[in-house]
Write a structure and sequence with these properties.
InterPro entries: ARM-like (IPR011989), ARM-type_fold (IPR016024), Vac8 (IPR045156). Pfam families: HEAT_EZ (PF13513). This is Armadillo repeat-containing domain-containing protein. GO terms for molecular function: protein-membrane adaptor activity. The chain is mainly α. It is built from 28 helices and no strands. α11 runs parallel beside α13, α23 packs parallel to α26 and α25 packs antiparallel against α26. The radius of gyration is 31 Å and the shape is elongated. The two termini are about 55 Å apart. The relative contact order is 0.05.
């Protein structure tokens, strides 16, 4: 779950401070609560009331003791509910004789809505109030109102109950997509979307495609992009909807988002790329997704991330991310139908050489990948895989202290040794001597299957 760094603040009129007017108005709230419609022609009064409610709800320690019975009375809550949608309704036309007053009304309506929307934050457990926020967001273009809606959605999403409430609220997906296009609100909207995605997918097909556009093209904040990456990861974690969200472009967007982020790495580990590699590794564990992963060019994606001008990405990858990347190739290589695509469309050996470090699990996955790709394939295909670099890598694996790594490396070397075209490399690199040394220095009962 993701938390924003700070909560949103409603713009305050600094000339209107807490004092006798607010407390007097607070005492009159219940009286005014049944007069909302007649008072709609008196925007100044409504503005004062909404400002009063918002001021008192920010003083939680006083509100709970002194004003709780008033602020949370059903009639007052109904006023807040209706006024939160106040600015979304059309204002009366400006009259030549009362132009100044109506202009002031136009200015006060958004402020009234913004203050009421901000007040709802303290009553977010009410489903009707969340619906009011969604309607206010979808019907308003006022920045303070949109900011209050976005921050409230983020706050509600912090609890399991709040996430379930948001997940079942009609129109929320459209509202969050709209907020995601606002530079001022996009961080809060991203947090809300990410946290709701922990529970399930709230977007329909068209809304999800629109969210993909927002994530890829509309985010102008590094932090918002990072949160969007977590949203995509969460969406891919639900088995029931996984196939549909992949079809709607979530996995494609994830790869593109990771590519965009690796173009502008900062001074620390790259979280978006790490999440993407983890998601791909999880998907590769299910054979049904292999074709989709390969069609999206995941092997070229890996090669591009560890070579050329993006080679600096290697410095930021954690050991766990390296395991996921190599494990992804290992899972793909376990399916014989993928061998042709892996051998012809990607330089698997180069990827493995860049990603393998001293980690035992990473080395075991790499050795198994090379063993799988050289097993039961034509000699011409083996030559493509078993290059000088691949043999050097396997010889390094033979020196591992782990029995599984040595055994898998020896099996891969054994597969390569069946191709006579590679004999000169075996002689030049003294592969036979390396195998004998392993047999002499380790337990002879170790199962080294090398057909040399």
């Amino acid at each position: 779950m993701i938390h924003p760094k700070h909560s949103a603040k409603i713009p305050v009129d600094h000339g209107f401070v807490t004092g006798a007017v607010e407390y007097y108005c607070a005492g009159m709230l219940c009286c005014f609560s049944s007069w909302t419609l007649p008072l709609s022609k008196r925007p100044g009064i409504l503005f004062t009331l909404s400002r009063t409610i918002w001021t008192l709800t920010q003083q939680t320690h006083e509100s709970a003791n002194d004003w709780g019975a008033i602020l949370f009375a059903p009639r007052v809550q109904d006023v807040v509910f209706r006024l939160s949608r106040f600015a979304a309704h059309p204002c009366p036309p400006t009259s030549p004789t009362t132009g100044d007053n109506n202009s002031r009304a136009l200015n006060l309506r958004p402020a009234t809505q913004a203050y009421c929307t901000g007040s709802i934050e303290i009553s977010v457990d009410n489903a009707h109030l969340v619906v009011a926020l969604v309607e206010a967001c979808n019907g308003s273009e006022d920045p303070p109102t949109l900011l209050a809606c976005a921050s409230t959605f983020a706050i509600v999403s912090f609890t399991p109950e709040g996430r379930q409430l948001l997940l079942t609220t009609q129109g929320l997906a459209h509202a969050l997509n709209k907020l995601g296009r606002s530079s001022m609100c996009q961080q809060y909207a991203a947090v809300a979307a990410c946290n709701v995605a922990i529970t399930g997918c709230m977007w329909n097909e068209e809304e999800l495609k629109d969210f993909v556009v927002v994530a890829l093209l509309r985010s102008n904040s590094f932090d918002a992009i990072q949160v969007h990456a977590k949203t995509l990861y969460n969406l891919l974690s639900h088995p029931a909807s996984r196939a549909q969200v992949i079809s709607d472009g979530v996995l494609y967007a994830f790869l593109k988002l990771a590519q965009l982020q690796t173009n502008g790495l900062r001074g620390g580990p790259e979280e978006t790329l790490s999440l993407c590699l983890h998601a791909l590794f999880n998907l590769s564990d299910t054979v049904v997704y292999h074709d989709t992963i390969l069609k999206l060019g995941v092997t070229a994606f890996l090669l591009g991330g560890v070579s050329g001008r993006r080679k600096r990405v290697l410095h930021f990858l954690t050991p766990e991310s390296r395991r996921h990347a190599v494990g992804l190739l290992c899972n793909l290589s376990a399916r014989e139908a993928n061998h042709k695509e892996l051998i012809h469309s990607a330089q698997v050996t180069d990827i493995l050489r860049c990603l393998c470090d001293g980690d035992t699990e990473t080395r075991a996955s790499a050795a198994m990948t090379l063993r799988n790709l050289t097993l039961r394939v034509a000699n011409a295909e083996v030559v493509r895989v078993c290059t000088r670099n691949a043999l050097n890598l396997l010889l390094v694996f033979l020196t591992s202290s782990n029995d599984s790594v040595r055994r898998l490396a020896a099996q891969a070397i054994g597969n390569c040794s069946l191709v006579t075209e590679l004999l000169h490399l075996f002689v030049e690199l003294q592969v036979g001597d390396a195998l004998l040394q392993v047999l002499e220095t380790h337990d002879p009962t170790t199962n080294l299957v090398a057909n040399v």
